[in-house]
Amino acid sequence: MNWLMIRNTLVACAAGLLMTGTVYAQESAPVKRMTTQDITSKVVYHIDGAEQPLKALRNIRNHLDVSPRTTIIVVTHANGVDFLMEGAKHAETGTQYAPLVSALTARGVVFEICEITLKNRKLTKDQFVLDATFTPSGVVRVADLQTQQGFAYIKP
Length: 156
Hints:
The chain is an alpha/beta fold. The protein has two domains: about 1-30; about 40-155, Hypothetical Protein Ychn, Chain: A. Helix content is about 45%, strand content about 15%. It has five helices and five strands; from the N terminus they run H-E-H-E-H-E-H-E-H-E. A five-stranded parallel β-sheet has the order 4-3-2-1-5, sandwiched between helices. It is globular. The N and C termini lie far apart (about 75 Å).
């Protein structure tokens, strides 16, 4: 019986030491939770319709407000290129797109226009805002950004 009491006392002491070490380790190394401010992600916004741009620009602004380290590329084709033309305005509100595009460009957003669309619609590069860049094919660019470069896809 004496041996049993000694063994139980030793086991209790060992358990106490182990738990003290665990508590100390938890206190000395706090866990840092990641916030959206810490996350770096890559996103392609795909715009191919005339009704999408105002909503897309608002989404992108909000996206960067919450997650400012995000890399964003906006790929446009078909009627989606219209908002990047000089003097373009929202049909219902009259909101000019150029200042919104410039503000987002200043935050690192890249706007790309499909050159196939230019050819098919007989448009020229000088008809577009200076903040716009060009890509040979909008659809191919979206696919490459997703499959080759790991961009998430958003179509507003």
